[in-house]
TrEMBL record:
<keyword id="KW-1015">Disulfide bond</keyword>
<feature type="domain" description="Sushi">
    <location>
        <begin position="7"/>
        <end position="65"/>
    </location>
</feature>
<keyword id="KW-0768">Sushi</keyword>
<dbReference type="Pfam" id="PF00084">
    <property type="entry name" value="Sushi"/>
</dbReference>
<protein>
    <submittedName>
        <fullName>Sushi, von Willebrand factor type A, EGF and pentraxin domain-containing protein 1</fullName>
    </submittedName>
</protein>
<dbReference type="InterPro" id="IPR035976">
    <property type="entry name" value="Sushi/SCR/CCP_sf"/>
</dbReference>
<dbReference type="InterPro" id="IPR000436">
    <property type="entry name" value="Sushi_SCR_CCP_dom"/>
</dbReference>
């Protein structure tokens, strides 16, 4: 005898910069899955995905990079670099008498972490 079974979404694929807050396997249509950013950044927009009638998940949230940690005391930020989006850059500078040894910017990488900070010379 035929019977009806609910449509469910499989566990969502999440990129390396996101983590699932609770178990999201076997969610029913209309249910939500909550995510957060792994590396201390903030979720851009909503922090949930919804199980759609097609049994696919709605679009993934994105993450920003965390607030950069400046460990070299003479390096200064030329702009507000808090919570930059992935692929964005942050410019740095040096006080008078110093120059940036490498490229004067660092980037928010695809995994929502910062590239290496430029060096002074």
């Amino acid at each position: 005898m035929p019977k009806c079974i609910p449509k469910i979404c499989p566990s969502p694929f999440v990129p390396e910069y996101l983590e699932i807050k609770r178990n999201c396997s076997s969610k029913n249509i209309g249910e939500f899955c909550e995510v957060s950013c792994k590396h201390g950044g903030k979720v851009s927009g909503t922090n949930t995905m919804q199980c759609l009638p097609t049994t696919a998940w709605s679009s993934l949230p994105d993450c920003t990079c965390p607030v950069p940690k400046i460990t070299q005391s003479l390096v200064t930020l030329k702009e507000n670099c808090n919570f930059k989006k992935r692929y964005e850059h942050c410019a740095v500078g040096c006080p008078q008498g110093y120059a940036v040894q490498t490229d004067g910017a660092f980037a928010c990488l695809p995994n929502a972490t910062w590239s290496s900070l430029p060096l002074l010379r």
